[in-house]
Structures are given as structure tokens and as C-alpha cells.
Give the backbone structure.
Amino acid sequence: MRSARPETRRAARPGFALLLALFMLIAIALLAAILLDGAVQELRIARGDVAGSRAQAASGSALADLLASRPESALLARPRGAISTASIAAGAETTTVAVQSLGNGLIRMSASARIWSGGQRGDAASLGFVAIVPDSAGPPGALRYRRLPGWWWAQLP
């Protein structure tokens, strides 16, 4: 037997669980996208730092190698302002060394390097001032570079 009460249907209430789940999924996706973008930017910055450090090391070592070498006597006979350059390219690395005569045996040396690392370019340059003097420890007539007193060497921006 049936009860005397008629069966009534409840009106469907809209729930908030589906809306909350969609909102949370969107918020998590946005957070993941922001974090991924930050990680990619950090990777690019790190690659740029590596390229810059390698370029700085290359220009510094090129200047040190030039300073450790023996100068030619022809540098003393060059007119003031005469510049000679040499470039070395190895793959994605390029180093350029320039020697400029300032007169009276004074020389301006500069070395610049451009390095690519992971798609990022690094540039660095070093500048130094030296004098050409006779080398008392070498054979007769030998010359050497002598650093000028004071701030003789600098890295260029």
C-alpha cells in the first residue's frame, strides 16, 4: 500500500563543487605557467652570465698573453696612432686584439671577446697601457713590455 502522501520532487539545487573545481584548475594552471616562465627567464639569465664570464676570461687571457709575449722592435718605429689588429675565431668564439702605438715606446693594448653560449651572447673587453723597455734578462737587444705605474689595466663595459 501506498502512503497517502503524494510524492513530491525536490527542485534541483545548483551545486558549487563543479565551479570550485574549475576555478582551482584555472588557478593551478596559471600558477604553473608563471613558475615555468620564471624558470625559463632564470635559464636565459644563467646562460647570459656564462657567456659573459667566458668572454671576460677570453679577453683577459688574450691581454695577459699579449703582455707575456716579447714585443717586436718594429713597434717602436711605428707612427703615433698606428693600430695593428689580429682576430681569432674558434666556432662561436671571437677574440680580437689591437695594439696602438702612442709614441715614445708607449703602447695601448686592447682585447675584446664575443662568446655565444646557449643562444645568449656575451661581450667583454680589456684595455691596458704598457711601455716597451729593454729586457735585461734576455738576449742583447731583446725588448719586453712593462706595465705603467698606477691603474694600467681596466675592463671595458
The longest strand covers residues 120-134. The chain has one domain: 34-156. The two ends are 97 Å apart (CA to CA).
